[in-house]
Amino acid sequence: MDRPNGFEEVLGHERGGLVLLHPTSLPDPPGRAYGVGELGSQAFRFLEFLAETGTLAWQTLPLGHTGFKDSPYQTFSRFAGSPLLISVERLFEAGDLTPEQHDAYCERARALPADRVDYGWLFEHKLGSGPEAQDAVLRQAFDNFSCRAPEDPRVQAFEVFRQAQTQRAGGWLADYSEFMALKERHGQRCWSDWPTPGRNVHEWRHERETLLAQNPDLARGIRFFAWLQFVFFEQWNAIRDFARQKGRILVGDAPWYVGYDSADVWARRHAVFDLDCTGHPLRVAGVPPDAFSATGQLWGNPLYNWHSPDAQQWWVEAVDFMLDMVDVLRLDHFRALDTYWVVSRRWVARKGTAEKGYWQKGPGGRVLKAIQQRLEEKGRIVPGGNLPLVAEDLGCFDSVFPSIRDYPEHTARHQRYSISREFRRMLREGHADVLPVLDRETGRYCTRKGTDVHLEDFRLPRMIVLQFGFEGCRFLWPEEMPYRAITYTATHDNDTSIGWFLNLTEREIGWFRGQKKHEHPPLLAERIRLALLSREERDSVLAARHPHPHHSHHHPHPHPHEGSEGHPEPEPQPPTCENAVEAVLNLLRVAWKTPSCLAGAQMQDLLLLDTTARMNLPGDAHGQWWAWRMTHEQAAQPELAERLKRLNEEFKRWT
Predict the structure, then answer these.
(1) pLDDT at position 558, please?
(2) Residue 120, Cα to own-chain centre: how many angstroms?
(3) Of 180, 206, 42, 31, whose CA–CA distance to 110 is shortest?
(4) Using CA atoms, how far apart are residues 419 and 425, in angstroms rounded to an integer?
(5) Which of 93, 163, 483, 621 is the most buried (most CB within 10 A)?
(6) Distance between CA 505 and CA 527 in Å, rounded?
(7) What is the pTM of this model?
């Protein structure tokens, strides 16, 4: 187990357990309905639950104001919190809602299913589409707040908040509140479709005071969106403080890209982002074909202009800001520091996929170095200390070559990637940024090693997802896994482990039957059980199954074989729900058994839920994702608390 400069100084503990649960998935309080998980009593109750079960960490998805398809990875601002997470319950307790307004909203929300989030309903009844939406509960709360006297403590706290945020991250609050108010005024259209002066941020700022004097509704809208952020951070900071009181840590999530229709791009389109003179991206983000999608994933986000120093500074400000909210921050799509996939706007217009694109060299470790310097200057970390960051380093890591002709003959056609001219020149000239992982003789650039260099240089924990491992991707037995890692059964982008087990086992059985042989390798359930054994026990079992010497403990998928007595093995039977439950309980134990500093599971796996509870399917733009909620009845199950307690006690992760 590698332990030099371990991550325990960040965690405050040597090892711990983690639960991945986005706040939107929290249940309603008993006897009330709010339509979505909120930053209210159930968030505090969840932290108490973690403390009672000895579980160290609560990991969330990004907390931003969601836009397109309700994805927390496509938000209207890198800095703003989601108004949908604002607790109606706590607004009522603060006196911003009357009992009648609170109860009327709860009564409407009772008609919603308790296990799903209806974002369209929330937009209409919680946030409202504009100042005319008088029945939207957040508009009602703002109207009541606006009736408070200037000397009221909460009004004064709001003004202090507004003033403080003008000094942070380039004045993000003004950018966000003005952007959202203008977006409302223009019927929720994308900013690139607004008329001037709103479309051009410089013209807007030049004429702002005149325009606001002429449009009092617009001025009130700006104040409304600033107030939403005041309330969001008031509520979130109370949760953060309660977590620290309970000795729990919060793990946040920073998307690598931002949405095009966002305050970030509107306000800093040329300083930070790679756009043409009209404000439109010539190239957008995505990933090539992978395990999730045969045509790749077209994200459509604008790319960063890494030739501008403003892009790096913006990233430093963003990470610094988010680390005020959480203890540890997961950097999504971490591999983009090394290389990132670029899709031309022309291809998108023709095909609408990410299938055809090219790799571009990322900014490398200089961004992490700048973040480290900022955190050291603020005293958040000691000089040379560990960054409170976790790298999401999953995905495609095929090597690249200067040209298509340079790939070895055996390379599949779809793995012969193009690269940018700039990247090609760097490889051929042996640029310092590529030299550590460049094979000068063949021109091969290993993107996996390129990412690993940053992980090692900054001693960052990586992510390990057991579902991928048991499918054969970068598999390690538990004792071989590193300490600097978070090992998950699955993440929000995976199927629930019950659904995954049933699906993969059926596919494996189908493959076996297609071979028309009386032999088969260990199926998924057995591979999971093998991972719970010691190395010696596992070697003994594998040797009995297949005594040939070329099968070692390093290989989780022995070749098809006969039984130990030479007789054909019985044909495997289709998996049952009972098989799946047993396998997932074992999978949880495998995760907690690893040496990794944190072992985690999404709440759906701890509840043993099937595919209907899946949070997201990457690359699927048609499904209703991000909507799963835990019901109050599920949260109250005694078995849930006992399950977590046993895991943390058995594998010495109790904190």
Answers:
(1) 43
(2) 22
(3) 31
(4) 10
(5) 483
(6) 11
(7) 0.94
